[in-house]
Amino acid sequence: MEPTERVVTGRMRLAAELRRLRDLSGMSGRELAKLIPVSQSKISRIESGQALPTLPEVTEWARALHAPEETMARLVFLTTNAFTEIQPWRELLSGAGHLQDEVEQQESGARTIRTLQVAVVPGLLQTADYARRLLGMAEPPYVKEDLSAAVAARLHRQRLVFDEDRQFEFLITDAALRWQPGPVNVLLAQWDRIASIATLGNVSIGLVPRGTRASTTVSHGFAIYDPADEEHLPFVTVEMIHAAVTVNDPSDVALYEKRWALVCEMAIFDDEAQRYLAKLAHEVRSTVT
């Protein structure tokens, strides 16, 4: 995965500082790799922003290059911030019509993606009409051309779901299933889409029925990414109203993984989930006939 500077500003600032420190020392990446527990290839990826170093790695890096205390303190600050990055939507969208290409970039670099949604159907499962109506409610609003491009790009992302070398897991609450962005036929088509995708061997879709006894609380949705490259650590993305949050700290990622496991205990899967979708569709059709 090659994150863009616009999306991972904190990581890029840290990368630039580490590279500047090494350049000023006159030491090559190969020489530095002999002094710290980081391979030369990873040093290159860290300096380009493709990999996020841990705090111990950054500390060893600075010590090996005899960095002064104030530089060490700055690097620690940048590293800590990079492990939880908050990017306001207004900054991310500055000069860009939409962010679907950046999201696809993250998804393309993952081996497994686990997505929990409590408000709407996950983007990778949305029909074109559902996506168009949902994105049409965005703030700030899209101009007409950008809205069309965003919908097309979201649908283009969905091709990854059919890649059998990737694993996709979804948890969707009843409230998210029932959220209705348009006429009933939009919702019925969306449920059909979910039922169809659930039959794929590399896809797992769990539904949390209304009335299920809760084993945990979830105030917002999130996605857990397990990178295909084993040298990259899992990370979490959260879409807040005002900003996009990326969680890289392993201890924080573990909290999301624990919450994921608890919601899984509340969910139904496979045939039971298919029957639940069919029941919802029957109930909706009964109210409009």
From TrEMBL:
SMART domains recorded? HTH_XRE (SM00530)
- What range(s) does the HTH cro/C1-type domain occupy? 18-72
Q: Return the protein name.
A: XRE family transcriptional regulator
Q: SUPFAM superfamilies, per this entry?
A: lambda repressor-like DNA-binding domains
Q: Tell me any Pfam family this protein matches.
A: HTH_31
Kindly list any coiled-coil regions of this protein. Answer: none
Checking InterPro entries in the record gives:
Cro/C1-type_HTH, DUF5753, Lambda_DNA-bd_dom_sf
**Organism of derivation:** Kibdelosporangium persicum
